[in-house]
Amino acid sequence: MDTSSPAVFVNAELLKMYMGRRVRAVIQVSRNEGGLMIGQSTDGQQLTVKGGAPQTFPVSHYVEVIGIADGNQSIRAEMCTDFGERFGTCILTLVAFSLILSLYVIFLVASLFEVAQVFISKKT
Description:
A hairpin with a 2-residue loop joins strand 5 and strand 6. The protein has 2 helices and 6 strands; from the N terminus they run βαβββββα. The longest helix is centred in the C-terminal third of the chain and has 35 residues, at 89-123. Strands 2-3-4-6-5 form a 5-stranded mixed beta barrel. It is α/β, with parallel strands linked by helices and 124 residues long. It has 2 domains: 8-84, CATH 2.40.50.140; 89-124. It is 31% helix and 37% strand. This is Replication protein A 14 kDa subunit B. Its main location: nucleus. The chain crosses the membrane at residues 91-113. One of its GO terms (molecular function) is DNA binding.
């Protein structure tokens, strides 16, 4: 794994903040047109991918793209990886579980803090 030039994960909205820099995105392929791959980003917006042999990826497949952000909604691909048609169902479940667990921990810490404040105020 090349760690000399890490690629930040982006969606279409974040892409514009990383113009000219190496980025990584996952899109669902909508269509292939003349050497371009057009797809939907994880935030529901459209992204265009140039290069990286996009014509080989079937419509509706999820594709990870690593390349250079060269426009508000485009990436010049260095490498593309096909994840197939059902990418992320397990990952989304894990993310949702992690989010729920994090919220629970925050609630628990807040509750403990509140109890500690009540205990301290009764002592004084």
